[in-house]
Amino acid sequence: MAGDGVLERLGDHLREHRGGIVTDLLFAVAWVTLVNALFRVVDGPTWAYYLLMAAGVVAYYGFFLSLEVATAARDG
């Protein structure tokens, strides 16, 4: 069946990238929780809420890029 190959490749992909997927999920949950908690306290405008949610993408790449640079500098 044609779907068997797709499911097998999907399973291989998930096994190979499991750690990265979990890390991405944890970062996303932490960011959304932080922004929601902040806006429950501050009660800011809706546009600022969405702006901070979108800033999570920049924060994600900034954090992991700096982590990669720091790891490369440490290793020599």
Number of domains: 1
Indicate the radius of gyration in whole angstroms.
18 Å
What portion of the residues fall into strands of 2 or more residues? under 5%
Distance between the termini: 49 Å
Overall pLDDT level: 90
Order of helices and strands: HHH
Give the overall silhouette: flat
Q: What is the helical fraction, as a range of percent?
A: over 70%
Please tally the β strands and state the result: 0
Q: The biggest beta sheet, please?
A: none
**Helix/strand/pairing category:** mainly alpha
Provide a count of the helices: 3
Unreliably modeled segments? none
Structure summary:
The protein has 76 residues and is mainly alpha-helical.
Detailed description of the structure:
The chain has three helices and no strands. By secondary structure, it is mainly α. It has one domain. The termini are far apart. The mean pLDDT is 90.
Q: Which terms would index this structure?
A:
76 residues, mainly alpha, 3 helices
Topology summary:
Layout: H1 2-16, H2 18-42, H3 46-75
Helix pairs in contact: 2-3
